[in-house]
Design brief:
Isoleucyl-tRNA Synthetase, Domain 1, alpha/beta, Rossmann fold, four-stranded antiparallel β-sheet, RNA-binding, 3 domains, single chain, 16 helices, four-stranded parallel β-sheet
RNA sequence: GGUCGGGUGGCCGAGCGGUUAGGCAGAGGUCUGCAAAACCUCGUACGGCGGUUCGAAUCCGCUCCCGACCUCCA
């Protein structure tokens, strides 16, 4: 099955055509590991997790590369004279830069695991590719798209712009505007020929903790360089998709394209995908101005912005309810609504898995509805990964599943084949594509099994009490369990329980 | 100031020329010892003002708000 992608470069939805039939190469800009990941990161990586999961689900062999930035990302607004983020943190905490990198990389992986984000196939680090980066700088110099000044090397944006007319193509900027609006107070601006030029190798002053020898100086690579170099190394000079947060369009991705042109004469990726921002209180979540909540705070509830903690799967579900290209405004109220919706979805999934088709059924209206809805789930996802629409169809299926379970709908209207399709596709889509796992599915540990049996025993005792019309005892058991977080639900074929 | 993207029913959030989005909350009903759950029914919403059209939330113009990027952030 084919699918469509909104290409940020053309600003249009395009039919996706892979470079090599059946294979997809995708590169996504990963985090700079100088502090805990924030939720905005999580949303971006959940979005790309959804996208790569779906591509795999459709049968593509995907190579997903997502880097770790562990050098070269500077604070402040200059290419030089500013401090490296990781270097700064290391200085403040009196640790080795690599201790900082290690700590936050591990923390990042923990958070990704909690949200059931699958690891990329390759997760390269900038510091692991110094040799390749230096080689690329040499190549760009050799081809004449960069120049050296006092041990630093700058990319010649003007030359690139004049030659291709493409500088600013991705972000919708014009180089004349970039000239006019560049800030006056850039340090070392006199080293640059043009204000929009950017450093690809930066000479380090002696206080700089992270520096490496190079033909030009003891220094470090410019931030944008690593992505050009590592994407080329692992995916080739041209690959299918490049992704990242929309705030990376400029200057990061624009400069990346320029560098690739400088190094090999053409742009790296054919499709560019950008995820939109996560907002809180109507404003972008930002590390720098405090309008933020960390993933762990959101899970624990330890934040003034929320009334309680939310399960990571609830948060993931909440994020999937909006399209990746739309902004999403986080609020406590919206999360509570998501929590209930998520439970409803997962409960239906459990019920469906427990159901059996009696064996006889006709192609009734229900049959065609279910087939139609299942088809639509895929159509929606294939239209630029429209998870919210796919979820809407899934919820219509929830309705049908519950009706079958509750007896309001009959299996007689449903062929065994269609039921089988539903029973396979519905749960598979939820877990494989949406990456939503049932928190009540605790596997088969001995403890969990004991718990199950004890609850079943209490339900049996309550059943006896009910038969004897001993409502006091019956309600006592129900209320006591409720207080422990176990909700009982009576239906005509017995009592079920859910662990909250 | 420049560039881009938004303003959708109580809340979140799809849709982007004609069809019910969906979730949560709310109202009524069925079922039930009661409750919960489930099922059925119920909302005619698209910032404002004009215009195009047989028909606009969806296209065009003006206008008012909001946000992002332009400077480190996904």
């Amino acid at each position: 099955m084919s699918f469509k992608i909104y290409n940020s470069l053309s600003r249009k939805k395009e039919e996706f055509k892979p470079l090599h039939e059946g294979f997809i190469g995708i590169y996504v800009c990963g985090p700079t590991v100088y502090s805990d990941v924030h939720l905005g990161n999580v949303r971006t990586f959940i979005s790309f997790d959804l996208i790569t999961r779906y591509m795999r689900h459709l049968g593509y062999k995907v190579r997903y590369v997502r880097n770790i930035t562990d050098v070269g990302h500077l604070e402040g607004d200059a290419d030089t004279g500013a401090e490296d983020k990781i270097g700064k943190k290391a200085r403040l905490e009196q640790l080795e830069p690599m201790e900082i990198v290690e700590r936050y990389t591990l923390g990042f992986h923990d958070v990704m695991r909690m949200f059931n984000v699958l690891p990329p196939n390759i997760e390269p680090r900038a510091t692991g590719h110094l040799i390749e980066q230096i080689e690329t700088v040499k190549e760009i110099l050799k081809r004449g798209y960069a120049y050296e000044v006092n041990g630093s090397v700058y990319f010649d944006t003007l030359k690139y712009a004049e030659e291709t007319g493409k500088y600013g193509e991705l972000s919708g900027r014009k180089i004349e505007e970039l000239i006019a609006l560049s800030r006056e107070d850039l340090k070392n601006q006199d080293e640059k020929r043009h204000p929009s030029d950017f450093a690809i190798w930066i000479k380090a002053d002696p206080s700089h903790l992270m520096r490496w020898p190079s033909p030009w100086s003891v220094g470090f690579p410019g931030w944008h360089l690593e992505c050009s170099v590592m994407s080329t190394k692992y995916l080739g000079e041209t690959f299918d998709i490049h992704g990242g947060g929309s705030d990376l369009k400029f200057p990061h991705h624009e400069n990346e394209i320029a560098q690739n042109y400088g190094a090999c004469g053409h742009a790296p990726a054919r499709y560019w995908m950008h995820t939109n921002m996560l907002l809180m209180n109507g404003r972008k979540m930002s590390k720098s101005d405090g309008n933020t909540i960390t993933p762990l705070e959101l899970i624990s509830g330890n934040s003034p912005h929320i009334s309680k903690g939310y399960h990571p799967m609830v948060i993931r579900f909440f994020m999937l309810q909006s399209h990746y290209r739309s902004t999403l405004d986080l609020s406590d109220e919206a999360l509570q609504a998501a929590e209930k919706g998520f439970k409803r979805l997962m409960e239906a999934r459990r019920h469906l898995l427990d159901m059996k088709h009696p064996g006889r059924g006709e192609k009734g209206e229900l049959d065609s509805e279910i087939n139609r809805l299942l088809d639509q789930v895929y159509e929606e996802m294939s239209d630029d990964f429209n998870a919210p629409k796919a979820l809407a169809r899934l919820f219509e299926l929830v309705n049908r599943i519950n009706a079958l379970k509750g007896g309001q709908a009959s299996f007689e209207q449903l062929t065994p084949e269609t039921f089988q399709r539903l029973q396979q596709t519905f749960p598979a889509f939820i877990s494989d594509v949406l990456g939503l796992e049932d928190p009540t599915d605790k596997g088969g540990s001995g403890q969990a099994e004991l718990l199950h049996k004890l609850i079943e025993l209490l339900i049996e005792l309550r059943q006896k009490a009910r038969q004897e019309k001993n409502w006091a005892m019956s309600d006592f058991i129900r209320d006591a369990l409720k207080n422990m977080g176990v909700t009982l639900k009576d239906s005509k074929d017995g009592t079920e329980w859910v662990l909250e």
